[in-house]
Amino acid sequence: MTTDTAGTYDVIVIGAGPVGENVADRTTAAGLSTVIVESELVGGECSYWACEPSKALLRPVLLRADALHVPGFGPALKGPLDTEAVLAHRDRMSADWKDDGQVEWIKSAGIDLLRGHGRLVGQREVSVETPDSDTVRLRARHAVAVCTGSRAALPDLPGIENLRAWTSREATSAQRPPGRLVIVGAGVVGVEMATAWQGLGSRVTLLARGEGLLPRMEPFAGELVAEHLREAGADIRFNTSVVAAERLPDGELRITLADGGELTADELLFATGRAPRSQDIGLDTVGLIPGDWLTTDDTLTVTAVPGDWLYAVGDVNRRALFTHQGKYQARIAGAVIGARARGETLGSGRWAPHTAAADIEAVPGVVFTDPEIASVGLTAADAERDGRAVEVVDYDMGQLAGAHQYRSDYQGRARLVIDRNRNTVVGATFAGPGVAELLQSATVAIVGEVPVERLWHAVPAFPTISEVWLRLLETRRDQ
Question: Signal sequence: where (predicted)?
Answer without folding.
Answer: none
